Amino acid sequence: MKRRDFCRMAGAGMLASGAFAVAARKAPPVTLVLAPSNLGLRPNGDGSQPGAWRAPQVLMESGLADALGARHTLQLARPDYQHGPQTNTRIRNGHTIRAFSLELAQKVRGVLDGGGFPVVIGGDCSVLLGGLYGSRLAGGRGLIHVDGHSDFSNPANYDTTKRLGSVAGMDMALASGRGEPLLTDWPVVGTPLAADADIIQIGERESDDPEFYSDLHATTITQLTIQRVLADGVGTTLERVVRQLEAKRLDKVWLHVDLDVLDERVMPAVDSPGRPGFNYTQLSEVVGTLCASGRIAGAEFTIYDPDLDPKRRYARPLVDCMAAGLKVRA
Fold first, then answer.
1. Rounded distance between C-alpha atoms, residue 57 and residue 135, angstroms
2. Rounded distance between C-alpha atoms, residue 227 and residue 246, angstroms
3. For position 72, what pLDDT does the model report?
4. Domain ranges in the chain?
5. Residue 85, Cβ neighbours under 10 Å: how many?
6. Using CA atoms in the order 322, 24, 19, 192, what is the torsion angle rounded to 10 degrees?
7. Nearest residue to 165 via CA among 183, 144, 149, 185
């Protein structure tokens, strides 16, 4: 082994061991927040509602609370899904999403103010707004957006008069202050929920597509495609991410994980499956390294659709994946 390789491995080991020591010292207890929403998704082709709202119940039945060692579980009521447009908004279920986000934010803030670690289980990606808002109310700053898609649809890159916007495809744009004030301007914190320079997007797989969001590249949002992460190695990439958090003094960051960042060969039961993507071990490493840094305030996991998994083949592997990533706090 060359000396420089040994030094790099030793340095990485010191970073990891130091991060795990921070996690072990603090280790706030997990509180599960169940957010059974499908409000941010388009109807299925047959007009039925997407089944992502069932995910919290199915994952709980698959042992999620025990696997995470959750001390408490908070349950939100399922909000009503509307197929048609709502008054004075071109965002599907826009007013309902705002109301649900306000409710979710108070749950998340309460957990954080009480010294806990909230783990929000969606539902679809629209729950990002409530989780991130709650984190901001509790003094947090910054967003790590782990997702196979950047979810950056906004009025600058699509015609809002021709179709209703679906928040599951625009959650990062809304979080960064792009879109209708209904979902970008929030009491106390205003807009945005996260500044571009404080957002890291990990996992985009379609950035070379001609229809990719051209305006995203002009921002200061850090963009780490799945192709780059897999080429450089998950460990090396996350080492850089942690150093970036340290340099920006981001120590109460909200972590969003859309499970479509998993490769469709291991996880097809999501709204928009695709490849390449992480396997379960790699996603656990992503979550674990970030949590071990001591800089993550709370996390959410979204977009698993039990209706696409009638035999529940993927529920327990998802539980194990989440538990493996979050266990470093214990």
1. 24
2. 25
3. 97
4. 22-329
5. 13
6. 60
7. 183
Which of the four CATH numbers 2.60.200.30, 3.40.50.720, 3.40.800.10, 3.40.190.10 does domain 22-329 have? 3.40.800.10
Q: Count of CB atoms within 10 A of residue 140's CB?
A: 25
| Vertex 291: Cα angle to 289 and 294 (nearest 5) | 110
C-beta separation of 105 from 137 below 8 A = yes
Question: Tokens 């060359």 appear where?
Answer: 2
The dihedral sign for the CA sequence 35, 39, 41, 44: positive
Residue 126, phi then psi, degrees to nearest 5: -65, -20
* pTM (2 d.p.): 0.92
pLDDT in tens, 275-321: 999 999 999 999 999 999 999 999 999 999 999 999 999 999 999 99
Three-state secondary structure along 26-37?
A: HCCCEEEEEECC
What value does the CA radius of gyration of the chain take, rounded to a whole number of Å?
Answer: 19
Q: What is the enclosing helix (H) or strand (E) of 250?
A: none
Residue 131 host element (H or E): helix 127-137
- Asked whether the beta carbons of 119 and 33 are under 8 A apart, the reply is yes
User: CB of 302 within 8 A of CB of 53?
Assistant: no
**190 phi, psi to nearest 5 deg:** 70, -135
Neighbouring CB atoms inside 10 A of 45's CB total 6
Structure tokens at 49: 């509602």
pLDDT tens-digit series, residues 200-213:
999 999 988 888 89
